[in-house]
TrEMBL record:
InterPro entries, A to Z: NAD(P)-bd_dom_sf (IPR036291), Sc_DH/Rdtase_CS (IPR020904), SDR_fam (IPR002347), SDR_subfam_2 (IPR030981)
Superkingdom to which the source organism belongs: Bacteria
Pfam family, one: adh_short_C2
Origin organism lineage: Bacteria, Bacillati, Actinomycetota, Actinomycetes, Sporichthyales
Protein name: Mycofactocin-coupled SDR family oxidoreductase
Sequence similarity: Belongs to the short-chain dehydrogenases/reductases (SDR) family.
Native organism: Sporichthya brevicatena
Keywords for the protein's UniProt record, in alphabetical order: Oxidoreductase
Amino acid sequence: MSAGRVAIVTGAARGIGAATVAELARQGYSVLCVDAVTDDSALGYPLATTADLDAVVKLANDSGAGGAAAFVADVRDLTRLEAAVADAERRWGGIDVAIACAGAMGGGAPHWETSVETEQVVLDVNLDGVLNLARVTIPAMLNRPAPRSGRFLAIASAGATRGLPKLAAYCAAKAGITGFIRALAVELGDSGITANAVSPGSTDTEMLAESARLYDLPAAAEFARQAPQDRLLHPDEVAAVVAFLASQKSGAMTGAIVPVDAGLGL
């Protein structure tokens, strides 16, 4: 049922973004895989590489029928995101789904002791990156003829509702996503395009490993005990829910913030 549908996924080179690309490809989507693939000096850990992005695209092309392609863009750069939309339209004729997975982790100290540079990157990537993606992809989805089944999706976090010490900017950005998604859903109204977010708990990714480092924990596995299920999530589990929300079957859902958190939010 997803044959012919086109998706743009940011933060596609690893983690939840990479798992989402793989799941969409298996379901027949054509996917433009967007990632900055460069480190940021304001963050304390290495980001995804070109090799990571190429591997995601290869896996998607090997396992799916729709096709996948890489596009290098930083979600803070509106001009590059506009170019990504143009590239997807040129390749596949339009856009049906936009999924904002790009994220950055930074902090490790109380807000007033966290560097302004680190805090700004966390806010810009995690929140402004979502707004930027919506700004360029929703007009493209509105160009699809009615009746539409466009989907705008963002990755929020349990941190949107749970106070995480030493990660104040991250929590602020993720809470901002949830407010934005609700407002966007109302603005889209009966256009045929929905806006939803998935709110993961502790997921076994490089970002969670960085969180463990910021908290001086020996390993990310330490976060498992916070959730009733006493385990970390796998990125594939989050991607499965994202893929449902991207599908035409989710048309009755808009403005929803869906927890996928092993019970962390209870």
